[in-house]
Amino acid sequence: MAPKSPETSRYTETERKFEVVESTVSPSFEGLSSVARTERSPSQSLAAVYFDTPARDLARNKITLRRRTGGTDAGWHLKLPAGADTRTEVHAPLEGDPTQVPDSLRDVVLAIVRDRPLTPVARINTTRIVELLYGPDGAPVAEFCDDQVTASAEGGEEQSWREWELELKPGTDTAVFDRLTNRLLDAGALPAGHGSKLARVLSTSTSESEEIPTKSADPARRAVAQNIAELIEWDRAVRSDVWDSVHQMRVTTRKIRSLLQSSEGSFDIADHEWILEELRELAAVLGVARDAEVLAERYERAIDGLPEANVRGPVRERLVEGAKKRYQMGWKRSLTAMRSQRYFRLLDALEALVTSGPPASAPGEEPAQLTIDSAYKRVRKAAKAARAAAADPEVNVEDSNEALHRIRKRAKALRYTAAATGETKVAERAKAIQSLLGDHQDSVVSRTHLSRQAEVAHAAGEDTFTYGLLYQLEDDLARRCEEQIEDALKALDKSVRS
User: Fold this and answer.
1) Average pLDDT over the chain, rounded to an integer
2) Which are the contacts of 289, defined by CB distance < 8 A and separation ≥ 6?
3) Largest separation between any pair of C-alpha atoms in the chain
4) Partner of 146 for a Cys bridge, out of 29, 129, 136, 343, CB 3.0 to 4.6 A?
5) Domain named CHAD: which ranges (predicted)?
6) How many CA atoms lie within 13 A of 248 on its CB side?
């Protein structure tokens, strides 16, 4: 479960909805070994106002945002998809202006709503009867709700229906969920054709002329569109400070930039160079926190693996705790960038680029197709330069390391292109090179940091033995990576030729 802010709380909700008619008799749960007894609560009256942007951006992403009064969980509720039958609920208390969405909830979906207004889109009133199901151990296993619903979209006609909800309690086996579901189906219920009450209301108010977007036949456009969607998902994880989310958002940002650069036949990127620059800047901002997170984990693992006698002085405080502090600073800096108009405009531009038409080709020319050819040529060229640097005694270590790092960047671009075009084996081989040289580059960064920290520790009169030991471990790792690179390049060449 992701961390929560002081203003919000988070829950995981696993439920299924069912359509029933007025005459449907409520199901019986007798005879089920997983249900020892049931307890029915008094009827509840729930009133909810749902909010969204004018373009229904939240609904399009299967997200609901409501302000509910009445019942046992009155408050602001933001529901986010989290898998089959499962959603993450973020709650905020009923405070302040009832027409203003709390900032703590708005920030969770800021990459989707950006600076667009959130206003009421529907009102739903529910009369609910709840039946709580308890297992043989006395713990609740599920909650069955029989709802009478009256709802209307803003400016739309009122509609009424009856539906059932079955919510699984935390810790209950999903097999129990299926057995309970069968009881509802046996009683005459049908699986609901909507994921939420709001979805049912809005679907009836949607214009029939609105077209459902279809996937592009262009592999580059499909890949970029998919990565933009992933970027927005990782954005949400970064805001909650989920482990490794900064790294994954940075990777996705770089992936989009690489695909746009290598897809001239699919995108009119020549007139949108600023997008590439903004993606580069965003990756750089995220890189501050990412690098610190990597170093913190790297040093913690390395120090834990050393004999206690070899850990001398406050090395853990300087390396691990220091990196964690730098991560927090970098994370906060990332959030500042992700709440800016500049970031919103970048997301707007990326979505517009995907939906716009391809660049015009010259008369008689076919649009350039996305292939691995040019990307692989750049890998070979970088590898040739790295071999030359390694063989030249006048080339210093820094330049030689940079030459290897250049292979990694070219292999990464090849991997993204190969994945987009369905060249799975090439993508796997390119990823192997990227990972190998990624370890090498992390070692280069780590050794530089260790040298600096050792100097600081020495100036403070501390024992620097452990810094030297860690430095040697990093140097050994780098050498092992260098020894494996030629075999990895040969494997890549074989996969390309086959």
Assistant:
1) 91
2) 246, 326, 327, 329, 330, 331, 333, 334
3) 88
4) 129
5) 213-494
6) 18
pLDDT band at 295 (very low <50, low <70, confident <90, very high): very high
In a domain, residue 1? The reply is no
Q: Sorting pLDDT into bands at 50, 70 and 90, what band is 4?
A: very low
Hey, what amino acid is at 233? E
Confidence of residue 205 (pLDDT cuts 50, 70, 90): low
* Helix (H) or strand (E) run with residue 37 in it: strand 37-40
Dump pLDDT digits (tens) for 299-314: 999 999 999 999 999 9
Which residues 6+ apart lie within 8 Å of 137 measured at CB?
A: none
* Range with the poorest average pLDDT among 15-19, 390-394, 461-465: 390-394
CB-neighbour burial class of residue 440 (10 A; exposed 0-12, middle 13-18, buried 19+) = buried
99 with 233, same domain: the answer is no
Give me the half-sphere count of Cα atoms (radius 13 Å) on the Cβ side of residue 275.
23
In this structure, are 165 and 41 located in the same domain?
Answer: yes
Q: Are 14 and 85 in contact (CB under 8 A)?
A: yes
The number of CA neighbours under 13 Å toward the Cβ of 469 is 16
CB under 8 Å to 240, separation ≥6 — which residues?
2, 3, 4, 108
- The CATH number for 175's domain is 2.40.320.10
Give the least confident one: 180-184, 287-291, 395-399, 464-468: 395-399
Owning domain of residue 307:
220-357
C-alpha 29: how far from chain center: 39
Tallying the residues shown for the chain, one arrives at: 498
Asked if the model's pLDDT at residue 73 lies above 50, the reply is yes
Query: Is residue 232 assigned to a domain?
Result: yes
Predicted confidence band of residue 82 (pLDDT cuts 50, 70, 90):
confident
418, 372 Cβ separation under 8 angstroms: yes
Residues 113, 18 within the same domain: yes
Confidence bin at 360 (pLDDT 50/70/90): low
Query: What are the helix (H) ranges across 266-372?
Result: 273-304, 315-316, 322-338, 341-355
Number of domains observed in the structure of the chain: 3
Q: What are phi and psi of 3, to 5 degrees?
A: -60, 160
φ and ψ at residue 403, rounded to 5 degrees: -65, -40
Q: What is the DSSP letter of 456?
A: H
Asked if residues 133 and 176 have their Cβ atoms less than 8 Å apart, the reply is no
What does the block give as tokens for 443? 């070692």
Q: Are residues 301 and 233 in the same domain?
A: yes
User: Does residue 213 lie within any of the structural domains?
Assistant: no
- Give the residue from 327, 357, 387 where a domain finishes: 357
Residues 272 and 320 in one domain: yes
Residue 492 · residue 348 · CB < 8 Å: no
Answering whether pTM is above 0.90, one says no
